[in-house]
Amino acid sequence: MAFSFSFAGDDIEQELDNEIEQVVSPEIAQVFPTENANGNRQENALGNAAMAVPLEPNLLNLEELYQSLPDRILYSVLELRTAAGRTIKLPRRELFDVRVQLIAEDSHGQGADLTGLGNDDIKKNVYEGGYKSWECSEDLAKILRDEYEGEEGGVGTEELHCIELGCGTALPSLALFQMALSKSRANTRFTLADYNAEVLRLVTIPNLLLSWAVVTERLDASKPEDELDISPEMITAFFDDLKEKDISIRTISGSWGNEFLNLVSPEGNLGRVLVLASETIYSPESLVPFTKVLLDILSQSQRPRAYVAAKRMYFGVGGGVEEFKNVLAKMGGSAQEVELDVAGRGVARAVLDVSKS
Ligand SMILES: C[S@@+](CC[C@H](N)C(=O)[O-])C[C@H]1O[C@@H](n2cnc3c(N)ncnc32)[C@H](O)[C@@H]1O
């Protein structure tokens, strides 16, 4: 099903206190081309009457992703103010710049796949919303900035494995990434997962580079928008810096499930873990796989922590905070709400501190 939430698009940038209207497309998708594990499009094998099949999980090669970037990317800076009064400046790649790259890559004129780069928010099992920043990711980024501020020796003295499920533009991870980069040794692993490999390649990965450019003063984040020139030397300096500060990054595409879990935790044993997820509980069909993966990761961790940020209700779709809490309780988890500083703005939302019961 193709649909648009009432708060469609890059909802961080939208004023949400206007009317909230259910906007579910009446059209039921007959067939969508899907991506295979390498991010290429493939026709749905089930034929015209079927929905797209879920994409299989895949560990992507980080260096190849960075090599596929153009020599210049355009960005705008999102500025956030935390409850404790701190400022975070998060440059994000512009979506029109992504469109330009995809069209330029379509050298054989077959038609670039611009799914998700127009007005549609989600196409079930085809594109799950990752190109745009959703507003709950802002809440989570602010909480993390205040919570991890005081830690010594990186974002933590003990190695921290930060796993963002359904990361998209990855604002929460970017907030932590900037903090890790500002230490001499961060001792931090990042696993960034998104349903769509193209989202990881075209927005998540460039956004990490942009945040690195802020911390290393290659980019002036006081300008609301600008462009960053990218050279092979810059990419080498990026990887050298990560190595020196003991920061690693992995990217995983595809759908939540056991195969996905095996990629996140190949040895079935994780140390200190922080799982992050923003706006991943909108679909009743994926509530169970999402909750299972989340709880499985927590079970495999010696020191687990998890935050799930979401709107209280996804109009016309069926998911939301209460539905998640019910599923979580049935599957052996529990959630505490974190106090939010969002009075009077937009659709009601929450950040949950999730643990195994
Ligand atoms: C609405 S987007 C939110 C993106 C981002 N976290 C934010 O808040 O800006 C939902 C995200 O959940 C992920 N997602 C949804 N269904 C999924 C599934 N079945 N398997 C894996 N990821 C899924 C997608 O990667 C997508 O980026």
Describe the structure.
Helices cover 30% and strands 24% of the residues. With 357 residues, the chain is of the alpha/beta class. The chain has one domain: Vaccinia Virus protein VP39 (Rossmann fold, 3-Layer(aba) Sandwich), CATH 3.40.50. The strands form four sheets. The protein has an eight-stranded mixed beta sheet with strand order 4-11-9-8-12-13-15-14, with helices on both faces. It has a three-stranded antiparallel beta sheet with strand order 6-5-10. It has a two-stranded antiparallel ribbon with strand order 1-7. Helix 8 links the parallel strand 12 and strand 13. Helix 3 (135-147) runs parallel beside helix 4, helix 4 (171-181) packs parallel to helix 5 and helix 8 crosses helix 9. Mean pLDDT is 85; it is low at 12-49. The site of S-adenosylmethionine has 19 residues, from helix 3. This is protein-histidine N-methyltransferase.
Label this structure with key terms.
357 residues; alpha/beta; Rossmann fold; 8-stranded mixed beta sheet; 3-stranded antiparallel beta sheet; 9 helices; 15 strands; 30% helix; 24% strand; globular; binds S-adenosylmethionine
Please provide a brief summary of the model:
With 357 residues, the chain is of the alpha/beta class. Helices cover 30% and strands 24% of the residues.
